[in-house]
């Protein structure tokens, strides 16, 4: 791909120009994408590399609780686990972030103070994204004011599927602006992770278009799913998104992260994704600052596999806390 000759703002100057740009992107060969993702998913790695991969995967986890029954106590317990995943082994790395609903951000911020673990908050009428823009903006601002380091927003899939790309673009821009911290509070602006909800986008071409649309609007990360819609993260979809961030960097010089979320439950799943990152986008993305794994049950399996490699035996089923 050649370097962009027009700015994102010029591309988004009208819905027609956005549509022309997005529909001018190369189409995705669905059969080829499925086959390549399946082939990469069969790659095996050596024992020493597997140990490193497990620790890397742990450091990339966004430990998540997004249930209506979430309590302050559950959030505090999750934060303790994020900082010290295995209480009996201080060599286990911390996870990347804890992800909670906006009204529980303050609890997470207090529990994680000084730990280096980020606080992420879903916002913008998660998971449906169906609300008024001023409500979505207020939701985001309140989460940022409460101390969220990262905002996971959901796009308006209805607008996207109806071809109203400009509406989706404008909403992402508005939410990115709402991620800014005021001068009095100081600190960096919250990073914006844009959830595409790929299970509702129907085609790989739509996944590619939505990825580019989010990046043009200023996303720091593009994320597959809310975890509330099936299918969620799949290897082929993640590969299409990795190709998009790779090509976006080649054409603009700006680097955007990727977060598959939902359905990644085992160490084998996590390692497949790391192989996919390395072979598609490159090892620049093999860092928690550019690749995350959105999960709740994954961490326990990573810890069990790590302990098996260290001690030669699996821990009992009640050794690690259930999240």
Question: What would you note in describing this structure?
Answer:
With 323 residues, the protein is α/β, with parallel strands linked by helices. It has one domain (26-311): TIM Barrel, CATH 3.20.20.70. It is built from 13 helices and eight strands. It has helices at residues 8-11, 15-23, 30-40, 47-60, 72-83, 105-112, 133-145, 157-161, 165-178, 204-216, 235-252, 267-280, 298-311, and strands at 61-64, 97-100, 118-122, 150-154, 191-195, 221-223, 257-259, 293-295. An eight-stranded parallel β-sheet has the order 7-6-5-4-3-2-1-8. β1, α5 and β2 form a beta-alpha-beta unit. The N and C termini lie far apart (44 Å).
In short:
Pathway: Carbohydrate degradation; 2-deoxy-D-ribose 1-phosphate degradation; D-glyceraldehyde 3-phosphate and acetaldehyde from 2-deoxy-alpha-D-ribose 1-phosphate: step 2/2. Helices cover 46% and strands 10% of the residues. It is built from 13 helices and 8 strands.
Q: Could you estimate the helical fraction of the residues in percent?
A: 40-55%
Sequence stretches where pLDDT stays below 50 over 5 or more residues: none
What is the count of β-strands? 8
Number of structural units classed as domains: 1
Q: How would you classify the helix and strand content by structural class?
A: alpha/beta
Termini separation (Å)?
44 Å
Rg, Cα atoms, Å: 19 Å
Shape: globular
Strand order of the largest sheet: 7-6-5-4-3-2-1-8
Approximately how much beta-strand content do the residues carry? 5-15%
CATH topology: TIM Barrel
Number of helices: 13
Order of helices and strands: HHHHEHEHEHEHHEHEHEHEH
Q: Taking all residues together, what is the mean pLDDT?
A: 93
| CATH superfamily label | Aldolase class I
CATH architecture, by name, is: Alpha-Beta Barrel
GO molecular function: deoxyribose-phosphate aldolase activity
InterPro entries: Aldolase_TIM, DeoC, DeoC/FbaB/LacD_aldolase
Enzyme class: lyase
Keywords: Lyase, Schiff base
């Amino acid at each position: 791909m050649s370097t962009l000759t027009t700015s994102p703002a010029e591309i988004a100057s009208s819905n027609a120009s956005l549509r022309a740009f997005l529909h001018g992107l190369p189409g995705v060969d669905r059969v080829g994408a499925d086959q390549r993702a399946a082939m990469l998913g069969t790659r095996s790695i050596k024992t020493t590399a597997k140990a490193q991969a497990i620790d890397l995967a742990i450091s990339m986890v966004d430990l998540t609780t997004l249930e209506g029954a979430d309590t302050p106590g559950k959030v505090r317990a999750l934060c303790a686990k994020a900082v010290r995943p295995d209480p009996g082994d201080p060599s286990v790395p911390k996870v990347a972030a804890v992800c909670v609903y906006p009204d529980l951000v303050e609890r997470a911020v207090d529990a994680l103070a000084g730990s280096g673990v980020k606080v992420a908050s879903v916002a913008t009428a998660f998971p449906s994204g169906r609300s008024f823009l001023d409500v979505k903006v207020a939701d985001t601002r309140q989460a940022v004011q409460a101390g969220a380091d990262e905002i996971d927003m959901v796009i308006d899939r209805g607008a996207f599927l109806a071809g109203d790309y400009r509406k989706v673009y404008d909403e992402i821009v508005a939410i990115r602006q709402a991620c800014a911290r005021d001068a009095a509070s100081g600190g960096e602006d919250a990073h914006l992770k844009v959830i595409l909800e790929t299970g509702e986008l129907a085609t790989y071409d739509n996944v590619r278009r939505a990825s580019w649309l989010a990046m043009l609007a200023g996303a720091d990360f593009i994320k597959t799913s809310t975890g509330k819609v099936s299918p969620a993260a799949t290897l082929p979809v993640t590969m299409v998104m990795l190709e998009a961030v790779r090509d976006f960097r080649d054409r603009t010089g700006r680097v955007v992260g990727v977060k598959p979320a939902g359905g990644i439950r085992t160490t084998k799943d996590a390692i497949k994704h790391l192989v996919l990152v390395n072979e598609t986008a490159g090892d620049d993305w093999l860092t928690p600052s550019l690749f995350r794994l959105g999960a709740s049950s994954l961490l326990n399996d990573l810890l069990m596999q790590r302990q098996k490699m260290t001690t030669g035996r699996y821990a009992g089923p009640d050794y690690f806390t259930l999240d």
